[in-house]
Design a protein that fits this description.
The protein is mainly β and 283 residues long. Helix content is 11%, strand content 65%.
């Protein structure tokens, strides 16, 4: 009898322990987010861009060798003084306008925080500007215009990863493009310059001397920017570049009904700055 009571007591105690355990709250498992994948910059990419360009360039105007009528025209326009000796007058042209185009490149992530590569781009450009100078002594007016019609670059890039998705970089290399310069001298009342070697006779009203030239040239570019990887394949960037395409010379000659064999040479300095934003797709 006593043994039977001990068995019943043990069974009752086990039942109570099981019930008590069932009533205890169950602790939820701790959620651990998967580790974010480290962005890999290796590979080819292509994209589009748009932005703004500007330039504050000098245009230099020179006459002929000593005793030429072109020298006197330059001196009269810029200083008002008679001078048949070689001299130079300078205009400052502020050019600006929109740009847009496309780019193609390759990145090589050669260390955890360093990226090297190359990029080529081609751009349409609306960058242009003009300037006017009026003689303080006679009725001569000089108008000039400068345009950056299109350009492209082929550059190396070297960047540092601030974090796995943010690249800051320096860039530089070859620049090429087409520029256009033009200049015109007009006279409201007519003007005559007679030098020992050449002469110029301006008719009243129409164009007296004029010249225009378009030139495709190569030069250099340098700048920098930052690029942010938005997804595994898409990145956005902001960039600044300075572009120098050298000088361009335009010969200004007499235009009918004006006459004469005197000339003026206009030299345009083609240097521009651009800022642009871009969108890239990594292959």
């Amino acid at each position: 009898m006593r043994a039977r009571l001990l068995v019943l007591a043990a069974a009752s105690l086990a039942t109570l322990q099981v019930a008590s355990a069932a009533d205890m709250p169950v602790k939820a498992p701790i959620y651990k987010a998967p580790a974010a994948a480290v962005y890999n910059w290796n590979g080819f990419y292509a994209g589009v861009n748009g932005g703004y360009g500007w330039g504050a360039n000098d245009a230099d105007f020179t006459g002929e060798p000593a005793n030429g009528a072109g020298n006197d025209f330059v001196s009269r326009i810029f200083t008002g003084a008679v001078n048949f000796s070689p001299n130079t007058g300078t205009q400052s042209i502020d050019a600006n306008g929109a740009i847009g185009g496309a780019q193609l490149g390759y990145n090589w992530q050669f260390a955890p925080t360093w990226v090297a590569g190359f990029e080529a781009d081609i751009q349409a450009s609306g960058v242009k500007g003009d300037a006017t100078t009026t003689s303080p002594s006679v009725s001569l007016r000089l108008d000039s215009e400068q345009k950056l019609k299109w350009f492209g670059t082929l550059r190396g890039r070297l960047g540092y990863l601030v974090n796995p998705n943010l690249l800051v970089y320096a860039t530089g290399g070859l620049a090429y493009g087409e520029t256009e310069g033009s200049a015109t001298v007009t006279s409201a009342t007519g003007f005559i310059a007679v030098g020992a070697t050449t002469t110029i006779t301006c008719a009243a009203g129409p164009v007296c001397l004029s010249g225009q030239d378009s030139k495709t040239a190569a030069g250099w570019t340098a700048g920098g920017g930052a690029e942010w990887a938005v997804t595994r394949n898409i990145s956005v960037k902001g960039e600044y570049l300075h572009i120098d395409l050298g000088n361009e010379s335009v010969l200004m000659t007499a235009q009918a009904p004006s006459t004469g064999n005197g000339t003026i040479t206009a030299t345009f300095h083609n240097s521009f700055d651009i800022v642009r934003a871009g969108l890239n797709w990594k292959f």
